[in-house]
Design goal:
With 299 residues, the protein is an alpha/beta fold. It has a single domain, classed as 3-Layer(aba) Sandwich (Rossmann fold), CATH 3.40.50. The chain contains 10 helices and 12 strands. The strands form 4 sheets. Strands 2-1-3-4-5-10 form a 6-stranded parallel sheet, sandwiched between helices. A two-stranded parallel ribbon has the order 6-9. Helix 3 links the parallel strand 3 and strand 4. Helix 1 crosses helix 6, helix 3 packs parallel to helix 4 and helix 5 packs across helix 8.
Length: 299
């Protein structure tokens, strides 16, 4: 089975490279070989590889920068996804695509379900929602996994930034009124491999397109439990202090979103209800506190 994997240099893509490897041949083109900002290059790469699956973990994720680079954000997060969908439909390939909690406005009081109304408040979220719609409208057999607050032991993410700054400063001010669920990239990658395995098992007696028509669509896949950015930072620094008792780490002060203005608005509520994933596939994402301990053990 040939799998075309995008975004291999990212957190999720790097872990997917490992978790998908047992399933078949992984083709992971570089940006020079398949630039997601160039829809023509995307189409050419898919036609050349002719994969059974396209796993699209590549994305434009610079939330604040997207406000000043909307064309690039839409090119990667929407136009490239449209091209992937059209080409996948033509060759009968299945598509796994990742989206975000930013497709919602964050005003709901409860964790978001897949059926809740979307309403992004920034360019990043709007471009990701446009990608979701483009993939669905392409007619390609697909599954979309919306996730949130992704982090890992490598790359650029909130956890690594906090740990770095906590070593350099006496005090850190972190937002405490935005709620969500930190998601370990490896847990997301393991889930993806398991889902492809289940889809392929069901496709032994049916066409893959028919399987995904029934079992595909949108799923929420974020870490279990909930916290705030402040809560995440406090827990991370506490655990790191236990590992390095001789190191002085910063105290973490709680602030409001209003006290930390950013070019792009952040959802106050990024919590995601993942019951559909559990009910359909008997898969439960890791609790964020458990995954945090595993990630810190790798740092």
């Amino acid at each position: 089975m040939r799998i075309l994997l995008t975004g291999v240099t990212g957190q999720v893509g790097g872990d997917l490279l490992q978790t998908l490897n047992p399933l078949g041949e992984i083709v992971a083109p570089t940006r020079a070989e398949m630039d997601l900002a160039n829809a023509a290059a995307v189409r050419e790469a898919i036609r050349s590889v002719r994969p059974r699956w396209i796993v699209n973990s590549g994305a434009y994720t610079a939330v604040d920068k997207a406000e000043s680079e909307p064309e690039l954000a839409y090119a990667i997060n929407a136009e490239a996804v449209k091209a992937i969908g059209v080409e996948a439909k033509a060759i009968g390939a299945g598509v796994i695509h990742y989206s975000t909690d930013y497709v919602f406005d964050g005003s709901a009081r409860a964790p978001y379900r897949e059926t809740d109304a979307t309403g992004p408040v920034g360019v990043y979220g709007a471009s990701k929602l446009a990608g979701e719609k483009a993939l669905a409208e392409s007619g390609a057999a697909h599954a979309i996994f919306r996730t949130s607050w992704v982090y890992a032991a490598r790359g650029k993410n909130f956890l690594l930034t906090i740990l770095k700054l906590a070593r350099e400063r006496d005090k850190l001010r972190v937002v405490a009124d935005q709620y969500g669920s930190p998601t370990w990239s490896r847990d997301l990658a393991k889930m993806t491999a398991a889902m492809i395995g289940q889809y392929e098992s069901a496709a032994r007696e049916r066409q893959l397109a028919d399987v995904l028509a029934e079992l595909g669509g949108v799923y929420h896949a974020a870490g279990a439990g909930e916290t705030t950015w402040h809560g995440f930072a406090v827990e991370a620094v506490k655990l790191q202090r236990e590992k390095e008792p001789g190191v002085k780490f910063a105290e973490i002060e709680a602030i409001t979103t209003a006290e930390y203005p950013t070019p792009a608005r952040r959802p106050a509520n990024s919590r995601m209800n993942c019951e559909k994933l559990t009910k359909q596939f008997e898969w439960k994402m890791m609790d964020w506190q458990d995954s945090l301990k595993k990630v810190l053990a790798e740092i």
